[in-house]
């Protein structure tokens, strides 16, 4: 070990940062012993909830949600940006989609009783002007064209936005307006088919979007019926697909635990005259139960599984999780994780048993990233492979088999469903593929039966590496990047799985002179991206045999730790950056990300001390 780095790891910037961050992460556990986290509040989610509850109240003789609507609007007013726009999080740049949704929700409330407020009107005027800057005017034609440009062939989010706008009466009364002809008709009747047929009929929605497909497809059909045989088919499929919608609704009413998706479904049913339908009623109850004290809604309820597995990986990055978690504490986390494994096919993605979702709540859907995280965490919690219990080993075996079966023909691993379609969440991606490799590494004996899939995954990563040495992830981005990608996150995750030296060089080159790292070279740094870079470089240093490269990597690590120490005030403050991407590229920040990634970097470096 070169003396310079060896000595640095004894100094105050590193040792204090490591101790404070680790203690803070361990203290962030909930009363059950695992991690829940806290997602940023979302203007987009808040706007859709307001519109759904407003419509529900308008359809009721006894309005119930006036207070929630008022508080939601007040929160939106406090988070409107100086230029009149809204971003996905209070720290995000303004964007067209969120501004359209917030503008229309607030405008619809501003013209109603008993909630008319002059400040709401002023907010809508400012937002309208910003929208005009983007679209040219406020006509349905201009807005629809702008959304089509933004989302292309993926209608998973553009059609719900247009539907929301119409139901907020932004283009005249939604019950009589001809603007519905600008809303593409979603083929909701296909939801009556067996799930196995969806790929055969080229269903152009992402695999998770069946609730929106059914509800939004039906509300459009209700207000602008399709003529001819297609219209007859849709009328015939109405009751069957409503039954599907009800059957796939989680017990708490929240589809995917997502406020926007649940809101879109709820407002569509209410606007069809089905305010008393069980799905609409349950959707309203979910929205009322998930509002925050400040009147806002998050994009999703929580990422408890994801945060827990990431935290376990972080505290164990230096060797043994048992160094910081007692036997009982590890057992509590293990048992909780085992209880989250899906033991039956998922109702509407059709995912086989064996996977994990991002949350412990009923709206979660099994996915590859969380399954990899859970499989790796179970290994860390039980120590060396010969010591692991039969129950844990069986669960890990099911998880790895689930992942291997999910892999696409190109060798890469998608998020939810193998080969469902060509839209992003159903295609292979490098960060999730790398996570699969890391999960398999944690269980060598179990992984032996999946060598063909693992070799294909490595070939996929080799083929998809950019010429500069980087990879781009799917579920993380950077709002300052020219294409809103985050090659720092993607590259760091692949380096952790493969030790690729060219990719590690890219990470060094992405570091700023002050030691911070952003989503790519020259971009503003964040705690999350800097910590990810430090961890990946530290992992590569343990296996490097090139002294010149090792020296450069050590210097980058020292600069990175010094930057992190300063940015976190020696591990006592961890402001989160909106680098997370939710469905349809909606930005979010998670308060545990900067803390977890910093702990992982510091603990990984501990192996070199």
Relative helix content: 40-55%
> Which structural class do the helices and strands define?
mainly alpha
Low-confidence stretches at least 5 residues in length (pLDDT < 50)? Answer: none
Oligomer: single chain
Instruction: Give the distance, in angstroms, between the N- and C-terminal Cα atoms.
Output: 8 Å
Number of helices: 24
- The rounded Rg comes to 25 Å
Q: How does the major sheet shape up? A: 2 strands, antiparallel
The figure for the number of domains is 2
Provide mean pLDDT, rounded.
Answer: 92
Q: So, CATH architecture of the largest domain?
A: Alpha/alpha barrel
User: And the CATH topology of the largest domain?
Assistant: Glycosyltransferase
Strand arrangement in the largest pleated sheet: 1-2
Number of strands: 4
The run of helices and strands is: HHEHHHHHHHHHHEHHHHHHHHHHHEEH
